[in-house]
């Protein structure tokens, strides 16, 4: 991530974490425009969209983060959680299993196993 994109991302993430999604979204979109291959930006945008009720845009953003970094258990777990939230357990289950497989001793795997225990 170049310095300008990092600056935008940091401002956006501060806004996102404080719940100011209206400020975070355009900053993340600018960061993505400047660095379209940065999965962290899409992941953060997914959370913003989820928290603003954009249930069409959120899985696209989460999915893009997974596409760009398929070995990141946090990105895969959050995509699975989105599907669980909507009750789409058929989509969530293989993602949860993938998290456990890729990082069996991670915090994310522990959370995935807990979710899988309900299936």
Which helices and strands appear, and what pairs or packs with what?
Layout: H1 3-17, H2 21-34, H3 39-51, H4 57-68, H5 73-85, H6 89-102, H7 107-116
Could you write a compact summary of the structure shown?
The protein is built from seven helices and no strands. By secondary structure, the protein is an all-alpha fold.
Key features of this structure:
119 residues; mainly alpha; 7 helices
Descriptive report:
The chain has 7 helices and no strands. It has helices at 3-17, 21-34, 39-51, 57-68, 73-85, 89-102, 107-116. The termini are far apart. The relative contact order is 0.10. The mean pLDDT is 96.
Question: SSE order, as H and E?
Answer: HHHHHHH
User: What is the helical fraction, as a range of percent?
Assistant: over 70%
First CA to last CA: what distance?
39 Å
Q: In one word, what is the shape? A: globular
Count the E strands.
0
> In this structure, how is the largest beta sheet organized?
none
User: Structural class, from helix and strand content?
Assistant: mainly alpha
Average per-residue pLDDT, rounded, comes to: 96
- Count of helices? 7
What is the percentage of strand-forming residues?
A: under 5%
Q: Which blocks of ≥5 consecutive residues have pLDDT under 50? A: none
What does the radius of gyration come to?
Answer: 14 Å
């Amino acid at each position: 991530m170049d310095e300008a994109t990092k600056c935008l991302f940091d401002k956006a993430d501060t806004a996102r974490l404080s719940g100011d999604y209206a400020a975070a979204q355009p900053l993340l979109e600018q960061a993505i425009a400047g660095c379209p291959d940065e999965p962290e930006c899409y992941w953060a945008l997914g959370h913003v969209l989820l928290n603003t009720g954009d249930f069409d845009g959120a899985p696209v953003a989460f999915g893009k983060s997974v596409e760009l970094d398929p070995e990141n258990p946090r990105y895969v777990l959050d995509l699975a959680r989105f599907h669980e939230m909507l009750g789409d357990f058929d989509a969530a289950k293989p993602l949860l299993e993938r998290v456990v497989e890729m990082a069996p001793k991670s915090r994310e795997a522990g959370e995935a196993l807990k979710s899988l225990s309900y299936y």
